[in-house]
Amino acid sequence: MNIPREILAALPVPAEACRETHISWVLLAGPHAYKVKKPVTLPFLDYATVEQRRFFCHEELRLNRRFAPDLYLDVVELAGEPAVKMRRFDEALRLDHVSSQGDLTGAHLAQLARDLVAFQAQAAVAAPEFGTPGIIRADALENFDELERLLPVEAPLLTRLRAWTEAEWQRRSRDFARRRAAGSVREGHGDLHLGNLVLLEGRVVPFDGIEFSADFRCIDVASEIAFTLLDLLDHGRPGLAHWLLDAWLTWSGDFDALTVLRFYLVYRAMVRAKVAALQERAPEAAGYLALASRLTTPPAPTLTITCGPSGCGKTHETSRRLASADFLHSVRVRSDVERKRLHDLAPDADSGGAIYTPEATARTYARLAELAEAILRAGWSVIVDAAFLKRAERAAFRSVAHRLGVAFEILAPQVPREELARRILARRNDASEATVEVMEQQLQWFEPPDQDEKV
Known about the structure:
The structure is a single chain. By secondary structure, the chain is α+β, with helices and mostly antiparallel strands. 51% of the residues lie in helices and 15% in strands. It has helices at 5-9, 50-64, 95-100, 106-122, 133-150, 155-181, 214-217, 221-234, 238-252, 258-278, 282-295, 314-323, 335-342, 358-377, 391-404, 417-426, 436-445, 451-454, and strands at 17-20, 24-29, 32-37, 41-42, 45-46, 72-78, 81-87, 185-187, 197-200, 203-206, 218-220, 302-306, 330-334, 381-385, 407-411. The strands form five sheets. It has a five-stranded antiparallel sheet. A hairpin with a 2-residue loop joins β2 (24-29) and β3 (32-37). The longest helix is centred in the middle third of the chain and has 27 residues, at 155-181.
């Protein structure tokens, strides 16, 4: 479908290029971009009349200004046709391109996670008709109905993935309902893949959220983050996927999301497979099916704890493990973060040391054990990043692993006292508030693990 010439003629400066999708044209003209909606009707949207297109232009402006107010400027008229006026940006700064160039970093994703958590905390809770277990099941199975028609050659794999989806939905139905009742279904972005994230002045900014379907954007926050995680896996960046999930959990504390996250990851893979199949890109669709299949067969969960005084490298070692992982199957729980959360403090807040009492420490370890068990039961491996200076503390977590029938490991980095002090003094922007004096006290009561504990 060609864009009408009168629209092109109405631009304030001539268009240098036109980017076309199946539902819109984006005209690049000088410092601005103009998004014009096509007069189309599809099963999931209706842009048939100019009044409808104008309404959805205003919706696009409203919804996307929540994320990118400096990017989304206005709705303008071009020869009687509404268009969303945007500030133009360098397309090389989209995160799919940044990732392909090898320039996407953990720092980028940590900032995105923090901003996304802040947005999700204040986003409108969806109306009761959105995010029900029944809707979730219907949306998931609709993907299979389409794919079985479009890709009959993949019938055996689709049959297996459909069976897994049905079984996992049945197993997680109460979790979906609980999260909806708790307000986890919010009006979000709806299409948060790497191609809809851009680096603007060094910050990752979401754009091009879905305006045409409240069903697509009024979703569980776990489904929202799942799309970005899935896209990182698709780009071959599992370490960065771990980094994003770790930062999102750090700032949200929503470890309950892990009960449904694997379902949503598979769902997102199936959506991408369906889109590729509809556009007759069968090899790409097959790749998403293979990714979905791998997501349904994670390795057996394991429980790992760290051990050692402040400055010994526990957090560095767990970060290294997450960053070097070959797939998305582990999460980390940090005692410094969860201790602050128990006292209603942000991860980067300074408590002044008031929360480091024996009672607070006992409460923190109890919370860590509770989280570790819940994460393991949800089918994820967990690394508990804490000092674990006492043999009894370590034994309690070994008992959790034994009771759940999962493998148990202790990470105990060995570092000279002088190096401990140097590292502590060099810390910046870390959740830990430990000082050299605290480290010296820790060394006095430290009960290092003996050989029997390491077996």
